[in-house]
Amino acid sequence: MASREHERILQDTEREQGNTAFRNNVKAALALANAVRSTLGPHGLDKMLISDVGDVQVTNDGVTVLEAAKVEHPTARMLIDTSTAQDTEAHDGTTSAIVLTAELLLNALDWIDRGIHPSVLTKGYGMSLDYALSEIESISRTSDEDDLIRVVETSLSGKISEDTRTSLSQLAVEAAKIAYKRSNRESIDPNDIKRITIRGGRVSDSERIDGIIMRKTRLDSQTSDKLTAGKVLILDGGLDPKELSLDASIRITEPGMLARFIERQKKELQDRVQTIADVGTNLLIVRDGVNDDAIPMLRKAGIVTYRRVERDDLELIARACGASIIRDTRAIDSDCLGDFESIKEESWESVDHVRINGSVGSGQTVIIRGSTQSILEETMRAFDDAIGVACGLVQDSSILPGGGAIQIALARRLRSFSTTVPGREQLAIEAYAAAMECIPRALSENAGLDGLDRILEITAVQASNDNDWLGLDVTDRSIYDMYERGILEPVRTTRQALIGATESAISVLRIGDILWAKQDPQTPDWQSELNQEDD
Length: 535
Hints:
This protein is an alpha+beta fold.
């Protein structure tokens, strides 16, 4: 019985085995890498993305391109996951991670065709990763204050114009340093820094402002639009009469019953407002709605209210003011409240905004400006990367050379290391070293240079000068010390790219059999199964 079931399953399945399966996986990885390879580096080209409904987006960000693509192949999806993890962890190096993964697989395919077993290659790649990570520590340097901006500028190369790159980098570093100084945690989340866009002006007019800014106006225009020093209560819910938990209907059997029911609801609402007022609340932030009957009650209590506030903003205001987010007004006490220094409503570009300055935490907002919507969107994506890199740098200030220098240096060291390995893993380490050179090759080719010539040139110059920081500055197509030119990368970006690419390549190498179902999933015929059980 089990044998017949097994045969039936295989009849409904397409199967790829051995080298055929791996070769098809490599093809999928190469196709994905080739789609983003041309975006790498300061001279990388942009991609125009057109959605199903005709929306157009122009971007140079690798992860944006990949996430917008409709990819069905499972191996390609694995690589996209690698790119997403790189973006989440390091906020840069997404394209490098994809290109390196594809190169590792391509080099592995060459040795598999020559008879080397995939398990040998996976072991060799693991050894190569461990060795490369240890060498990164010896090559890295600790950055100073000036280096932080130069590192962020390098991460933005090719994503935005050169004249706005410096201003955005300075803005990101300033915001990250202030957030780290004010935070009570060992690490800071880039999302602690709010970003909003305002159409109008130049990108260089973007600014950082203390306080949490929201596109909101107060619920009651008769209350003050300015407050100085007070208590804030944050309610994760609404201020409406309580509803019955079950569907029910009310039967009116005598005159006045409905009026008494409504009056009881108002009394319950009044009690809730009074509870809020009794703990000393001056400012009320509500996630959901506020009943109209509560508006005059809040006004009489002197409470300025903002409703329908996003959850992310609730959390930012809570951290900035030292408040707790509560769900039930019955649980309110003075410990739930936070302190604000001031609130003020302002109008920017004919849109009302409110600024809340907290007494503690990292309350700050970065305002991104631009002349058109497309420029605003691309600048916002670039700043998201910049603030992520800057937040990482203020925690771990270790840096490495850019311009392909670190990849060439690691490739040189890996080749020397491979001579100390007696088994066939030596071949895998050689393949790993060769794959590292795909980054400087892509940088060179995207700048209109011969990739092979530049790899050989950088390798020779580094070896003869015993300087791992010599790399290619594609702006004038010459080799320099990358530290002197300010072309720098965070250690965490390179480290995460190596880890992600290696683990993805090893995962694909371990796949020896691919089974494709011929039929789409169908709703099970439960009745047939029950009948079979009865028999």
